[in-house]
Amino acid sequence: MKIIDLIRPIDRRRFLQSSSLASLFASAGMIELAASEPSTEFKLRYILGSSLYGFQSLADIIPEISQTGASAIDIWPLIHGNQREQIDEMGEAAFSELIKKHNVELGCITQYKLGPFGLETELRTAKRLGCKTIVTGAEGPVNLKGDELKKAIRFFIERMKPHLAIAEACGVVITIENHANNLIESPDSLRYLAELNPSTHLGIAFAPYHLPQDEELLAQLLDDILPLVHVFYAWQHGDGCMHPMPKEKELLQMPGRGDLDFTSMLKVLKRSNYQGWTEIFMHPFPRGIPILETTSAVTEEINLARSYLDEIVSNI
């Protein structure tokens, strides 16, 4: 049996087409030129969440970034980690030198405790460090629906306008996560935020964990709001993260471990050539510990999830 006979029919057709094109290029002396063309293959842009490593030092975490297929770090503060506090302790110059040494960037700072109206100093810090994304929550009433919800989001956006002006001056996007017990937590609230948003410096951090675990609903919602999405958390609910449980159950939050199929959401991202960050994520219990005991084990777990996501993207 010939090798070509082992290829599936649709792949066999592509193989023959590719072979014919290769012959054409070769006859024209163009093989070298074709190989030098930049690849247009879609790939997720990974960012590494520092909190996955608990209170581990930045000196130990930064070298892991490239090992996880990421090009940037999302810095978390207490209580989830303490890497933001570490930057203050070591100084901005030393931190900048550390990430430069490892050829990575500060892609995001997560700052829930400051809230959306307390970010001015952090926005200026982000500018100095070359960081273009800050993730936070949305303050306001909860458990609203319909017109009341839309009105509350409109009021939230009005209150945000002075802060968005500062964000614009700093070249930063204030990115709101759909978080439980928050103004922005439901599918409708995300759609209203996208509909009413007046600024390119106000974005969304999309967290499937906090939404119904219905892959088609999540994909449609993501499609509806995607132009505003700057961070996609590759994170599912699994068995949750709010009480002690065996580690194998806690890890069900990770892509590829729990029941949620990410295929439909990844189709949306690929079809739209999504260029925001993708952050493989989970919360341990209690907060502040690493998701696994050793640095190498955390990195290995992230790579297991990344392999799951990358395989889906390559097969779409």
Describe the protein:
- The structure is a single chain.
- The chain is α/β, with parallel strands linked by helices and 316 residues long.
- 45% of the residues lie in helices and 13% in strands.
- It contains 13 helices and eight strands.
- It has helices at 9-27, 31-36, 58-61, 64-67, 83-90, 92-101, 120-129, 146-170, 187-196, 215-225, 247-250, 263-271, 295-315; strands at 45-49, 70-75, 105-110, 133-136, 173-177, 202-206, 229-234, 277-280.
- The protein has an eight-stranded parallel barrel with strand order 1-2-3-4-5-6-7-8.
- α7 packs across α8, α8 (146-170) crosses α9 and α10 (215-225) packs parallel to α12.
- 41% of the residues are buried.
List keywords for this structure.
alpha/beta, 8-stranded parallel beta barrel, 13 helices
Distance between the termini: 29 Å
Helical fraction equals 40-55%
Largest sheet: 8 strands, parallel, barrel
SS elements, strand count: 8
- Tell me the number of helical segments per DSSP (H or I, 4 or more residues long): 13
What would the average pLDDT be, to the nearest integer? 90
Strand order of the largest sheet: 1-2-3-4-5-6-7-8
Structural class: alpha/beta
Low-confidence stretches: 1-38
Order of helices and strands: HHEHHEHHEHEHEHEHEHHEH
**Cα-atom radius of gyration:** 22 Å
Strand percent estimate: 5-15%
Shape: globular
